Amino acid sequence: MRILVSDPVSAQGVELLQKEYEVDVKIKLPIEELIKIIPQYDALVVRSETKVTKAVIEAAANLKVIGRAGVGVDNIDVEAATQKGIIVLNAPEGNTIAATEHTMAMMLALARNVPQAHASLKNGQWLRSKLMGVEMRGKTLGILGLGRIGSGVAKRALAMEMNVVAYDPFINAEQAAAIGIQLLELDEIFPLADFITLHLPFTSETKYLLNKERFAKMKPSVRIINCARGGVIHEGDLAEAIEQGIVAGAAIDVFEKEPVNPENPLLKLDQVIVTPHLGASTAEAQVGVAVDVAKGIIAALKGEPIATAVNMAPIQSHVLEVIRPYFNLAEKMGCLAINLAEGRITAVDVEYNGEISEVDTKMLTTAMIKGLLNSILTEHINYVNAPGVAKSRGIKIREVKSKETANFANLITVRVYTDKKTHVVAGTLFGHEEGRIVMIDGYRVDVEPQGWLIVGLHLDRPGMIGYVGTILGTDGININSMQVGRTEVTGTNIMVMSVDSDVPAATMLKIKAVDGILGAKMINFCVI
Ligand SMILES: NC(=O)C1=CN([C@@H]2O[C@H](COP(=O)(O)OP(=O)(O)OC[C@H]3O[C@@H](n4cnc5c(N)ncnc54)[C@H](O)[C@@H]3O)[C@@H](O)[C@H]2O)C=CC1
Ligand SMILES: O=C(O)CCC(=O)C(=O)O
Protein backbone atom coordinates (compact mmCIF):
# COMPACT_ATOMS: atom_id res chain seq x y z
CA MET A 1 0.00 0.00 0.00
CA ARG A 2 1.19 3.55 -0.74
CA ILE A 3 0.68 6.70 1.29
CA LEU A 4 1.02 10.28 0.11
CA VAL A 5 1.86 12.99 2.68
CA SER A 6 1.08 16.29 0.97
CA ASP A 7 1.56 18.82 3.80
CA PRO A 8 4.42 19.19 6.28
CA VAL A 9 3.86 16.81 9.18
CA SER A 10 6.30 15.87 11.89
CA ALA A 11 8.91 13.19 11.08
CA GLN A 12 7.74 10.93 13.93
CA GLY A 13 4.40 10.44 12.18
CA VAL A 14 5.99 9.81 8.79
CA GLU A 15 8.41 7.28 10.32
CA LEU A 16 5.52 5.36 11.91
CA LEU A 17 3.87 5.09 8.49
CA GLN A 18 7.15 4.08 6.82
CA LYS A 19 7.49 1.10 9.16
CA GLU A 20 4.40 -0.42 7.55
CA TYR A 21 3.98 1.13 4.10
CA GLU A 22 5.66 2.94 1.22
CA VAL A 23 5.40 6.70 1.89
CA ASP A 24 5.93 9.63 -0.48
CA VAL A 25 6.22 13.13 0.99
CA LYS A 26 5.34 15.70 -1.67
CA ILE A 27 4.65 19.18 -0.30
CA LYS A 28 2.97 22.12 -2.08
CA LEU A 29 1.67 20.06 -4.97
CA PRO A 30 -0.40 22.08 -7.45
CA ILE A 31 -3.95 20.67 -7.46
CA GLU A 32 -3.62 19.43 -11.07
CA GLU A 33 -0.54 17.43 -10.06
CA LEU A 34 -2.34 16.04 -6.99
CA ILE A 35 -5.26 14.93 -9.19
CA LYS A 36 -2.80 13.28 -11.57
CA ILE A 37 -0.92 11.25 -8.97
CA ILE A 38 -3.66 10.51 -6.41
CA PRO A 39 -4.82 7.26 -8.15
CA GLN A 40 -1.49 5.67 -7.10
CA TYR A 41 -2.23 6.05 -3.39
CA ASP A 42 -4.22 4.18 -0.76
CA ALA A 43 -3.97 6.91 1.87
CA LEU A 44 -3.46 10.66 1.94
CA VAL A 45 -2.17 12.69 4.91
CA VAL A 46 -2.79 16.45 4.98
CA ARG A 47 -2.77 19.45 7.31
CA SER A 48 -4.76 22.49 6.23
CA GLU A 49 -2.85 23.56 3.11
CA THR A 50 -3.91 20.74 0.76
CA LYS A 51 -7.46 21.21 -0.49
CA VAL A 52 -8.95 17.76 -0.92
CA THR A 53 -11.69 18.77 -3.30
CA LYS A 54 -14.38 16.68 -4.98
CA ALA A 55 -12.20 16.53 -8.10
CA VAL A 56 -9.30 15.08 -6.08
CA ILE A 57 -11.61 12.51 -4.49
CA GLU A 58 -13.19 11.55 -7.82
CA ALA A 59 -9.72 10.90 -9.24
CA ALA A 60 -8.65 8.87 -6.20
CA ALA A 61 -9.38 5.41 -7.57
CA ASN A 62 -7.56 3.52 -4.80
CA LEU A 63 -7.85 5.91 -1.87
CA LYS A 64 -9.18 4.33 1.32
CA VAL A 65 -8.45 6.96 3.91
CA ILE A 66 -7.65 10.65 4.26
CA GLY A 67 -5.97 11.66 7.50
CA ARG A 68 -5.95 15.26 8.73
CA ALA A 69 -3.06 16.01 11.10
CA GLY A 70 -5.16 18.42 13.16
CA VAL A 71 -8.80 19.16 13.98
CA GLY A 72 -10.58 21.10 11.23
CA VAL A 73 -11.53 19.07 8.16
CA ASP A 74 -12.98 22.01 6.27
CA ASN A 75 -10.23 21.61 3.62
CA ILE A 76 -11.60 18.14 2.80
CA ASP A 77 -14.83 17.43 0.91
CA VAL A 78 -16.04 14.97 3.54
CA GLU A 79 -19.35 14.38 1.79
CA ALA A 80 -17.66 13.35 -1.46
CA ALA A 81 -15.29 11.10 0.48
CA THR A 82 -18.16 9.44 2.35
CA GLN A 83 -20.03 8.78 -0.89
CA LYS A 84 -16.93 7.06 -2.22
CA GLY A 85 -16.47 5.01 0.96
CA ILE A 86 -13.27 6.84 1.87
CA ILE A 87 -12.65 7.21 5.60
CA VAL A 88 -11.83 10.73 6.74
CA LEU A 89 -10.11 10.87 10.10
CA ASN A 90 -8.48 13.63 12.09
CA ALA A 91 -6.23 14.03 15.12
CA PRO A 92 -8.47 16.07 17.36
CA GLU A 93 -6.56 16.08 20.61
CA GLY A 94 -2.89 16.52 19.75
CA ASN A 95 -3.06 20.28 19.22
CA THR A 96 -5.69 21.26 21.80
CA ILE A 97 -3.20 22.61 24.32
CA ALA A 98 -1.24 24.44 21.62
CA ALA A 99 -4.36 26.18 20.29
CA THR A 100 -5.59 26.91 23.82
CA GLU A 101 -2.29 28.48 24.84
CA HIS A 102 -2.06 30.43 21.60
CA THR A 103 -5.51 31.85 22.32
CA MET A 104 -4.36 32.96 25.76
CA ALA A 105 -1.19 34.45 24.24
CA MET A 106 -3.25 36.35 21.66
CA MET A 107 -5.73 37.57 24.26
CA LEU A 108 -3.00 38.90 26.56
CA ALA A 109 -1.01 40.36 23.67
CA LEU A 110 -4.16 42.13 22.45
CA ALA A 111 -4.99 43.47 25.91
CA ARG A 112 -1.45 44.80 26.43
CA ASN A 113 -0.56 45.83 22.85
CA VAL A 114 2.50 43.57 22.92
CA PRO A 115 3.04 43.29 19.13
CA GLN A 116 2.57 47.06 18.63
CA ALA A 117 4.98 47.81 21.49
CA HIS A 118 7.52 45.36 20.14
CA ALA A 119 7.34 46.70 16.59
CA SER A 120 7.53 50.37 17.61
CA LEU A 121 10.42 49.86 20.02
CA LYS A 122 12.38 47.91 17.40
CA ASN A 123 11.70 50.92 15.19
CA GLY A 124 13.35 53.21 17.74
CA GLN A 125 10.14 54.57 19.32
CA TRP A 126 9.48 54.67 23.07
CA LEU A 127 5.66 54.84 23.11
CA ARG A 128 4.65 54.32 26.74
CA SER A 129 1.48 56.41 27.00
CA LYS A 130 0.12 55.54 23.56
CA LEU A 131 0.18 51.84 24.31
CA MET A 132 -1.99 51.76 27.42
CA GLY A 133 -3.60 48.33 27.94
CA VAL A 134 -6.47 46.78 29.88
CA GLU A 135 -6.47 44.10 32.60
CA MET A 136 -8.11 40.71 32.28
CA ARG A 137 -9.10 40.28 35.93
CA GLY A 138 -12.75 41.07 36.49
CA LYS A 139 -13.51 41.30 32.76
CA THR A 140 -16.13 39.13 31.10
CA LEU A 141 -14.97 36.61 28.50
CA GLY A 142 -17.58 35.23 26.08
CA ILE A 143 -16.53 31.90 24.58
CA LEU A 144 -18.29 30.81 21.41
CA GLY A 145 -17.89 27.03 21.13
CA LEU A 146 -17.18 25.20 24.39
CA GLY A 147 -15.41 22.10 23.03
CA ARG A 148 -11.86 20.97 23.72
CA ILE A 149 -10.18 24.34 23.10
CA GLY A 150 -13.07 26.50 24.32
CA SER A 151 -13.21 24.69 27.66
CA GLY A 152 -9.39 24.86 27.99
CA VAL A 153 -9.57 28.60 27.45
CA ALA A 154 -12.40 28.82 30.00
CA LYS A 155 -10.31 27.11 32.70
CA ARG A 156 -7.32 29.37 32.07
CA ALA A 157 -9.49 32.50 32.01
CA LEU A 158 -11.06 31.52 35.34
CA ALA A 159 -7.56 31.19 36.78
CA MET A 160 -6.99 34.79 35.67
CA GLU A 161 -10.10 35.77 37.64
CA MET A 162 -12.21 36.61 34.60
CA ASN A 163 -15.99 36.10 34.50
CA VAL A 164 -16.56 33.47 31.87
CA VAL A 165 -19.75 32.81 29.90
CA ALA A 166 -20.18 30.64 26.84
CA TYR A 167 -22.46 29.92 23.92
CA ASP A 168 -22.61 26.36 22.60
CA PRO A 169 -25.99 24.91 21.63
CA PHE A 170 -24.61 21.36 21.76
CA ILE A 171 -23.35 21.46 25.34
CA ASN A 172 -25.67 21.17 28.31
CA ALA A 173 -25.74 23.41 31.37
CA GLU A 174 -24.30 20.63 33.60
CA GLN A 175 -21.21 20.28 31.37
CA ALA A 176 -20.66 24.04 31.53
CA ALA A 177 -21.26 24.09 35.29
CA ALA A 178 -18.64 21.32 35.70
CA ILE A 179 -16.10 23.76 34.24
CA GLY A 180 -17.53 26.49 36.48
CA ILE A 181 -19.12 28.72 33.86
CA GLN A 182 -22.57 29.72 32.66
CA LEU A 183 -24.09 28.99 29.25
CA LEU A 184 -25.92 31.88 27.60
CA GLU A 185 -27.66 32.51 24.29
CA LEU A 186 -25.50 34.17 21.64
CA ASP A 187 -27.31 37.51 21.82
CA GLU A 188 -27.07 37.53 25.63
CA ILE A 189 -23.27 37.39 25.42
CA PHE A 190 -22.77 40.49 23.24
CA PRO A 191 -23.78 43.23 25.72
CA LEU A 192 -21.79 41.55 28.53
CA ALA A 193 -18.48 40.53 27.01
CA ASP A 194 -15.25 42.54 27.17
CA PHE A 195 -13.51 39.77 25.23
CA ILE A 196 -15.08 37.30 22.78
CA THR A 197 -13.12 34.26 21.65
CA LEU A 198 -14.23 31.80 18.97
CA HIS A 199 -13.68 28.05 19.17
CA LEU A 200 -16.21 26.49 16.83
CA PRO A 201 -15.90 24.69 13.52
CA PHE A 202 -16.46 26.38 10.18
CA THR A 203 -19.79 25.07 8.89
CA SER A 204 -22.70 26.48 6.90
CA GLU A 205 -24.21 27.33 10.32
CA THR A 206 -21.19 29.21 11.61
CA LYS A 207 -20.19 31.04 8.40
CA TYR A 208 -20.07 34.78 9.20
CA LEU A 209 -21.49 34.13 12.68
CA LEU A 210 -19.94 37.45 13.66
CA ASN A 211 -21.05 40.09 11.18
CA LYS A 212 -22.06 43.75 11.02
CA GLU A 213 -25.39 43.14 12.73
CA ARG A 214 -23.78 41.24 15.61
CA PHE A 215 -20.88 43.68 16.06
CA ALA A 216 -23.49 46.40 16.55
CA LYS A 217 -24.85 44.53 19.60
CA MET A 218 -21.45 44.32 21.34
CA LYS A 219 -19.90 46.53 24.02
CA PRO A 220 -17.84 49.25 22.25
CA SER A 221 -14.74 48.20 24.22
CA VAL A 222 -15.01 44.57 23.13
CA ARG A 223 -11.90 42.74 21.90
CA ILE A 224 -12.26 39.71 19.64
CA ILE A 225 -9.94 36.72 19.37
CA ASN A 226 -10.22 34.20 16.55
CA CYS A 227 -8.02 31.11 16.62
CA ALA A 228 -10.73 28.86 15.11
CA ARG A 229 -11.53 29.47 11.43
CA GLY A 230 -11.44 32.62 9.31
CA GLY A 231 -14.86 32.38 7.72
CA VAL A 232 -16.62 32.40 11.09
CA ILE A 233 -16.08 36.18 11.16
CA HIS A 234 -16.96 38.48 8.26
CA GLU A 235 -13.54 40.12 7.89
CA GLY A 236 -14.80 43.22 6.05
CA ASP A 237 -17.48 43.83 8.70
CA LEU A 238 -14.93 43.41 11.49
CA ALA A 239 -12.53 45.90 9.91
CA GLU A 240 -15.38 48.38 9.56
CA ALA A 241 -16.54 47.84 13.17
CA ILE A 242 -13.00 48.55 14.41
CA GLU A 243 -12.65 51.67 12.26
CA GLN A 244 -15.99 52.92 13.63
CA GLY A 245 -14.96 52.24 17.25
CA ILE A 246 -17.67 49.57 17.65
CA VAL A 247 -14.95 46.97 18.37
CA ALA A 248 -11.76 47.99 20.24
CA GLY A 249 -9.44 45.44 18.69
CA ALA A 250 -8.96 41.93 17.42
CA ALA A 251 -6.39 39.13 17.56
CA ILE A 252 -6.63 36.96 14.50
CA ASP A 253 -4.79 33.70 13.76
CA VAL A 254 -7.00 32.39 10.98
CA PHE A 255 -8.30 33.96 7.78
CA GLU A 256 -11.03 33.24 5.30
CA LYS A 257 -8.39 32.82 2.59
CA GLU A 258 -4.99 31.48 3.56
CA PRO A 259 -2.24 32.51 2.99
CA VAL A 260 -3.90 35.84 3.69
CA ASN A 261 -4.12 38.45 0.95
CA PRO A 262 -1.82 41.38 1.88
CA GLU A 263 -4.71 43.67 0.90
CA ASN A 264 -6.96 42.20 3.60
CA PRO A 265 -8.34 45.27 5.46
CA LEU A 266 -7.61 43.68 8.86
CA LEU A 267 -3.86 43.81 8.14
CA LYS A 268 -4.05 47.59 7.75
CA LEU A 269 -5.43 48.29 11.24
CA ASP A 270 -3.18 48.99 14.26
CA GLN A 271 -5.84 47.60 16.58
CA VAL A 272 -5.60 44.19 14.93
CA ILE A 273 -2.81 41.81 15.85
CA VAL A 274 -2.23 38.77 13.67
CA THR A 275 -0.39 35.47 13.40
CA PRO A 276 -0.23 33.24 10.31
CA HIS A 277 -2.38 30.29 11.53
CA LEU A 278 0.04 29.38 14.31
CA GLY A 279 -2.50 27.94 16.76
CA ALA A 280 -1.22 24.40 16.39
CA SER A 281 2.40 25.30 15.74
CA THR A 282 4.23 23.93 18.73
CA ALA A 283 6.79 21.16 18.59
CA GLU A 284 4.67 19.07 20.96
CA ALA A 285 1.42 19.51 19.03
CA GLN A 286 2.98 18.69 15.68
CA VAL A 287 4.45 15.46 17.00
CA GLY A 288 1.12 14.69 18.72
CA VAL A 289 -1.07 15.16 15.66
CA ALA A 290 1.39 13.44 13.30
CA VAL A 291 1.64 10.36 15.50
CA ASP A 292 -2.12 10.27 16.10
CA VAL A 293 -2.95 10.59 12.42
CA ALA A 294 -0.36 7.95 11.48
CA LYS A 295 -1.91 5.51 13.97
CA GLY A 296 -5.35 6.27 12.54
CA ILE A 297 -4.16 5.71 8.95
CA ILE A 298 -2.50 2.40 9.84
CA ALA A 299 -5.66 1.21 11.64
CA ALA A 300 -7.81 2.26 8.67
CA LEU A 301 -5.60 0.49 6.12
CA LYS A 302 -5.70 -2.65 8.24
CA GLY A 303 -9.50 -2.45 8.41
CA GLU A 304 -9.45 -1.90 12.16
CA PRO A 305 -11.84 0.41 14.00
CA ILE A 306 -10.89 4.07 14.24
CA ALA A 307 -11.93 6.29 17.10
CA THR A 308 -11.24 9.55 15.23
CA ALA A 309 -13.06 9.04 11.94
CA VAL A 310 -15.25 12.04 11.20
CA ASN A 311 -17.50 10.32 8.68
CA MET A 312 -18.40 7.35 10.84
CA ALA A 313 -20.29 7.12 14.12
CA PRO A 314 -17.80 8.28 16.78
CA ILE A 315 -16.75 5.72 19.39
CA GLN A 316 -16.03 6.94 22.89
CA SER A 317 -12.71 5.65 24.21
CA HIS A 318 -14.25 3.71 27.14
CA VAL A 319 -16.64 2.00 24.69
CA LEU A 320 -13.81 1.23 22.26
CA GLU A 321 -11.88 -0.43 25.09
CA VAL A 322 -14.79 -2.86 25.68
CA ILE A 323 -15.63 -3.61 22.05
CA ARG A 324 -12.14 -3.57 20.46
CA PRO A 325 -11.40 -7.30 21.08
CA TYR A 326 -14.64 -8.27 19.31
CA PHE A 327 -14.12 -6.46 15.99
CA ASN A 328 -12.27 -9.24 14.21
CA LEU A 329 -14.71 -11.84 15.54
CA ALA A 330 -17.77 -9.84 14.44
CA GLU A 331 -16.33 -9.37 10.95
CA LYS A 332 -15.51 -13.06 10.59
CA MET A 333 -18.99 -14.01 11.86
CA GLY A 334 -20.51 -11.86 9.13
CA CYS A 335 -18.32 -13.65 6.58
CA LEU A 336 -19.29 -17.10 7.88
CA ALA A 337 -23.01 -16.33 8.12
CA ILE A 338 -23.25 -15.01 4.57
CA ASN A 339 -21.34 -17.98 3.19
CA LEU A 340 -23.75 -20.38 4.85
CA ALA A 341 -26.79 -18.50 3.60
CA GLU A 342 -28.63 -19.46 0.46
CA GLY A 343 -31.28 -17.34 -1.18
CA ARG A 344 -31.94 -13.60 -1.13
CA ILE A 345 -30.98 -11.96 2.14
CA THR A 346 -33.77 -9.90 3.60
CA ALA A 347 -32.57 -9.07 7.10
CA VAL A 348 -29.76 -9.60 9.57
CA ASP A 349 -30.15 -9.57 13.35
CA VAL A 350 -27.17 -9.13 15.62
CA GLU A 351 -27.86 -10.11 19.20
CA TYR A 352 -25.55 -9.08 22.03
CA ASN A 353 -25.80 -10.97 25.31
CA GLY A 354 -23.97 -10.31 28.53
CA GLU A 355 -22.05 -7.23 29.62
CA ILE A 356 -21.23 -6.27 26.06
CA SER A 357 -24.92 -5.45 25.62
CA GLU A 358 -24.47 -2.50 27.97
CA VAL A 359 -22.23 -0.46 25.66
CA ASP A 360 -22.84 1.09 22.25
CA THR A 361 -22.28 -1.81 19.84
CA LYS A 362 -23.14 -0.03 16.57
CA MET A 363 -19.56 -0.26 15.29
CA LEU A 364 -19.42 -3.99 16.04
CA THR A 365 -22.59 -4.43 14.02
CA THR A 366 -20.93 -2.41 11.26
CA ALA A 367 -17.89 -4.73 11.47
CA MET A 368 -20.20 -7.72 11.03
CA ILE A 369 -21.89 -6.09 7.99
CA LYS A 370 -18.45 -5.26 6.59
CA GLY A 371 -17.42 -8.94 6.83
CA LEU A 372 -20.71 -10.05 5.36
CA LEU A 373 -20.66 -7.69 2.36
CA ASN A 374 -16.94 -8.00 1.63
CA SER A 375 -17.49 -11.71 1.09
CA ILE A 376 -20.06 -11.14 -1.64
CA LEU A 377 -19.26 -7.81 -3.30
CA THR A 378 -16.37 -6.77 -5.46
CA GLU A 379 -16.46 -3.17 -4.26
CA HIS A 380 -14.40 -2.51 -1.14
CA ILE A 381 -16.62 -2.34 1.92
CA ASN A 382 -15.34 -0.50 4.99
CA TYR A 383 -16.68 1.01 8.20
CA VAL A 384 -17.83 4.13 6.31
CA ASN A 385 -19.83 2.62 3.50
CA ALA A 386 -20.97 -0.71 5.03
CA PRO A 387 -24.29 0.50 6.56
CA GLY A 388 -25.17 2.48 3.40
CA VAL A 389 -24.40 -0.42 1.05
CA ALA A 390 -26.48 -2.82 3.21
CA LYS A 391 -29.38 -0.36 3.10
CA SER A 392 -29.09 0.16 -0.64
CA ARG A 393 -29.30 -3.63 -1.09
CA GLY A 394 -32.48 -3.76 0.98
CA ILE A 395 -30.90 -5.66 3.89
CA LYS A 396 -32.53 -4.66 7.19
CA ILE A 397 -30.03 -4.67 10.05
CA ARG A 398 -31.35 -4.95 13.61
CA GLU A 399 -29.57 -5.00 16.96
CA VAL A 400 -31.05 -7.03 19.82
CA LYS A 401 -29.61 -6.70 23.31
CA SER A 402 -29.97 -8.57 26.54
CA LYS A 403 -27.86 -8.74 29.67
CA GLU A 404 -29.03 -12.37 30.06
CA THR A 405 -26.59 -15.04 28.90
CA ALA A 406 -26.57 -18.82 29.26
CA ASN A 407 -23.12 -20.40 28.80
CA PHE A 408 -20.81 -17.52 28.00
CA ALA A 409 -20.02 -14.25 29.77
CA ASN A 410 -20.60 -12.45 26.47
CA LEU A 411 -22.10 -13.81 23.28
CA ILE A 412 -22.72 -12.33 19.84
CA THR A 413 -25.26 -14.09 17.67
CA VAL A 414 -25.78 -13.26 13.99
CA ARG A 415 -28.98 -14.38 12.30
CA VAL A 416 -29.14 -14.07 8.53
CA TYR A 417 -32.68 -14.30 7.16
CA THR A 418 -33.10 -15.23 3.52
CA ASP A 419 -36.18 -16.00 1.47
CA LYS A 420 -35.27 -19.70 1.95
CA LYS A 421 -33.95 -20.20 5.48
CA THR A 422 -32.44 -18.59 8.55
CA HIS A 423 -28.78 -19.24 9.41
CA VAL A 424 -27.36 -18.61 12.85
CA VAL A 425 -23.76 -18.13 13.91
CA ALA A 426 -22.69 -17.32 17.47
CA GLY A 427 -19.29 -16.24 18.76
CA THR A 428 -17.54 -15.22 21.92
CA LEU A 429 -14.10 -14.43 23.29
CA PHE A 430 -12.01 -17.04 25.07
CA GLY A 431 -9.80 -15.21 27.54
CA HIS A 432 -9.73 -11.52 26.63
CA GLU A 433 -8.64 -11.64 23.01
CA GLU A 434 -9.31 -15.03 21.36
CA GLY A 435 -12.38 -14.91 19.16
CA ARG A 436 -14.21 -18.23 18.72
CA ILE A 437 -17.24 -19.34 16.75
CA VAL A 438 -19.21 -21.42 19.25
CA MET A 439 -22.36 -22.20 17.32
CA ILE A 440 -23.28 -22.80 13.68
CA ASP A 441 -26.92 -23.35 12.85
CA GLY A 442 -27.77 -24.74 16.29
CA TYR A 443 -24.72 -26.99 16.47
CA ARG A 444 -22.18 -26.30 19.25
CA VAL A 445 -18.66 -25.92 17.78
CA ASP A 446 -15.33 -24.44 18.79
CA VAL A 447 -13.79 -22.85 15.73
CA GLU A 448 -11.05 -20.24 15.40
CA PRO A 449 -12.31 -17.88 12.70
CA GLN A 450 -9.19 -17.80 10.55
CA GLY A 451 -7.84 -19.46 7.44
CA TRP A 452 -10.22 -21.80 5.62
CA LEU A 453 -13.22 -23.69 6.89
CA ILE A 454 -15.40 -26.38 5.32
CA VAL A 455 -18.90 -26.71 6.70
CA GLY A 456 -20.84 -29.71 5.42
CA LEU A 457 -24.14 -31.40 6.08
CA HIS A 458 -24.27 -35.17 5.64
CA LEU A 459 -26.34 -38.22 6.45
CA ASP A 460 -25.62 -39.79 9.83
CA ARG A 461 -23.97 -43.00 8.60
CA PRO A 462 -20.54 -44.60 8.80
CA GLY A 463 -17.70 -43.60 6.50
CA MET A 464 -18.78 -40.04 5.61
CA ILE A 465 -15.84 -38.34 7.35
CA GLY A 466 -13.46 -40.84 5.81
CA TYR A 467 -14.65 -40.04 2.27
CA VAL A 468 -14.18 -36.30 2.76
CA GLY A 469 -10.81 -36.79 4.51
CA THR A 470 -9.59 -38.96 1.63
CA ILE A 471 -10.62 -36.39 -1.01
CA LEU A 472 -8.84 -33.59 0.86
CA GLY A 473 -5.75 -35.73 1.48
CA THR A 474 -5.55 -36.81 -2.17
CA ASP A 475 -5.74 -33.15 -3.25
CA GLY A 476 -2.96 -32.19 -0.80
CA ILE A 477 -5.12 -30.29 1.67
CA ASN A 478 -4.26 -30.72 5.32
CA ILE A 479 -7.05 -30.80 7.92
CA ASN A 480 -6.00 -29.10 11.17
CA SER A 481 -9.18 -29.54 13.19
CA MET A 482 -12.48 -31.29 12.75
CA GLN A 483 -15.78 -31.46 14.60
CA VAL A 484 -18.85 -33.53 13.82
CA GLY A 485 -22.23 -33.50 15.50
CA ARG A 486 -25.94 -34.03 15.09
CA THR A 487 -28.19 -31.27 13.80
CA GLU A 488 -31.78 -30.77 14.87
CA VAL A 489 -32.89 -32.70 11.73
CA THR A 490 -32.94 -36.41 12.66
CA GLY A 491 -30.43 -38.41 10.68
CA THR A 492 -28.46 -35.39 9.57
CA ASN A 493 -25.00 -34.44 10.82
CA ILE A 494 -22.83 -31.39 10.39
CA MET A 495 -19.04 -31.46 9.92
CA VAL A 496 -16.85 -28.45 10.47
CA MET A 497 -13.23 -28.71 9.33
CA SER A 498 -10.46 -26.14 9.49
CA VAL A 499 -7.96 -26.67 6.71
CA ASP A 500 -4.48 -25.28 6.10
CA SER A 501 -5.00 -23.95 2.59
CA ASP A 502 -7.57 -22.77 0.10
CA VAL A 503 -9.78 -25.58 -1.23
CA PRO A 504 -10.06 -25.46 -5.03
CA ALA A 505 -13.55 -25.48 -6.52
CA ALA A 506 -12.78 -28.89 -8.13
CA THR A 507 -12.12 -30.41 -4.70
CA MET A 508 -15.33 -28.92 -3.33
CA LEU A 509 -17.22 -30.45 -6.27
CA LYS A 510 -15.78 -33.89 -5.46
CA ILE A 511 -16.89 -33.50 -1.80
CA LYS A 512 -20.37 -32.42 -2.82
CA ALA A 513 -20.63 -35.39 -5.16
CA VAL A 514 -20.09 -37.94 -2.36
CA ASP A 515 -23.21 -40.03 -1.78
CA GLY A 516 -24.70 -38.90 1.55
CA ILE A 517 -23.20 -35.39 1.53
CA LEU A 518 -26.18 -33.02 1.57
CA GLY A 519 -24.23 -29.84 1.01
CA ALA A 520 -20.80 -28.31 1.65
CA LYS A 521 -19.51 -24.77 1.84
CA MET A 522 -15.96 -23.47 1.86
CA ILE A 523 -15.44 -20.30 3.88
CA ASN A 524 -12.31 -18.27 3.23
CA PHE A 525 -11.77 -16.05 6.26
CA CYS A 526 -8.71 -14.58 4.56
CA VAL A 527 -10.64 -12.59 1.96
CA ILE A 528 -11.98 -9.98 4.39
N1 LIG B 1 -5.70 27.96 14.87
C1 LIG B 1 -5.33 26.71 14.83
O1 LIG B 1 -4.23 26.37 14.45
C2 LIG B 1 -6.27 25.67 15.31
C3 LIG B 1 -7.61 25.82 15.10
N2 LIG B 1 -8.47 24.85 15.52
C4 LIG B 1 -9.89 25.10 15.30
O2 LIG B 1 -10.50 25.42 16.54
C5 LIG B 1 -11.87 25.07 16.50
C6 LIG B 1 -12.26 24.34 17.78
O3 LIG B 1 -11.52 23.14 17.91
P1 LIG B 1 -11.85 22.09 19.09
O4 LIG B 1 -12.14 22.81 20.33
O5 LIG B 1 -10.79 21.07 19.07
O6 LIG B 1 -13.18 21.47 18.51
P2 LIG B 1 -14.38 20.77 19.32
O7 LIG B 1 -15.11 19.98 18.34
O8 LIG B 1 -13.85 20.13 20.55
O9 LIG B 1 -15.27 22.02 19.76
C7 LIG B 1 -16.09 22.73 18.90
C8 LIG B 1 -17.30 23.16 19.69
O10 LIG B 1 -18.07 24.01 18.86
C9 LIG B 1 -19.42 23.73 19.12
N3 LIG B 1 -20.24 24.15 18.00
C10 LIG B 1 -20.46 23.51 16.83
N4 LIG B 1 -21.32 24.24 16.07
C11 LIG B 1 -21.64 25.33 16.80
C12 LIG B 1 -22.48 26.46 16.56
N5 LIG B 1 -23.17 26.56 15.41
N6 LIG B 1 -22.56 27.40 17.51
C13 LIG B 1 -21.87 27.29 18.66
N7 LIG B 1 -21.07 26.25 18.97
C14 LIG B 1 -20.95 25.29 18.03
C15 LIG B 1 -19.48 22.25 19.36
O11 LIG B 1 -20.60 21.89 20.12
C16 LIG B 1 -18.19 22.01 20.12
O12 LIG B 1 -18.41 22.02 21.51
C17 LIG B 1 -12.05 24.26 15.21
O13 LIG B 1 -12.56 25.12 14.22
C18 LIG B 1 -10.65 23.87 14.84
O14 LIG B 1 -10.52 23.64 13.47
C19 LIG B 1 -8.05 23.76 16.20
C20 LIG B 1 -6.72 23.57 16.44
C21 LIG B 1 -5.72 24.48 15.97
O1 LIG C 1 -2.31 22.13 10.83
C1 LIG C 1 -2.28 23.25 11.34
O2 LIG C 1 -1.25 23.86 11.60
C2 LIG C 1 -3.59 23.92 11.65
C3 LIG C 1 -4.33 23.25 12.74
C4 LIG C 1 -5.75 23.56 12.67
O3 LIG C 1 -6.18 24.58 12.23
C5 LIG C 1 -6.69 22.52 13.13
O4 LIG C 1 -6.23 21.53 13.71
O5 LIG C 1 -7.88 22.73 12.93
TrEMBL record:
It holds the Pfam family PGDH_inter. Residues 453-528 form the ACT domain. PROSITE patterns: ACT, D_2_HYDROXYACID_DH_1, D_2_HYDROXYACID_DH_2. The keyword Amino-acid biosynthesis applies. InterPro entries: ACT-like_dom_sf (IPR045865), ACT_dom (IPR002912), ASB_dom_sf (IPR029009), D-2-hydroxyacid_DH (IPR050857), D-isomer_2_OHA_DH_cat_dom (IPR006139), D-isomer_DH_CS (IPR029753), D-isomer_DH_CS1 (IPR029752), D-isomer_DH_NAD-bd (IPR006140). SUPFAM superfamilies: ACT-like, Formate/glycerate dehydrogenase catalytic domain-like, NAD(P)-binding Rossmann-fold domains, Serine metabolism enzymes domain. Its EC number is 1.1.1.95. It is an enzyme of class 1 (oxidoreductase). Pathway: Amino-acid biosynthesis; L-serine biosynthesis; L-serine from 3-phospho-D-glycerate: step 1/3. GO terms for molecular function: phosphoglycerate dehydrogenase activity. Belongs to the D-isomer specific 2-hydroxyacid dehydrogenase family. NCBIfam families: PGDH. Catalyzes the reversible oxidation of 3-phospho-D-glycerate to 3-phosphonooxypyruvate, the first step of the phosphorylated L-serine biosynthesis pathway. Also catalyzes the reversible oxidation of 2-hydroxyglutarate to 2-oxoglutarate. This is D-3-phosphoglycerate dehydrogenase. The gene is serA.
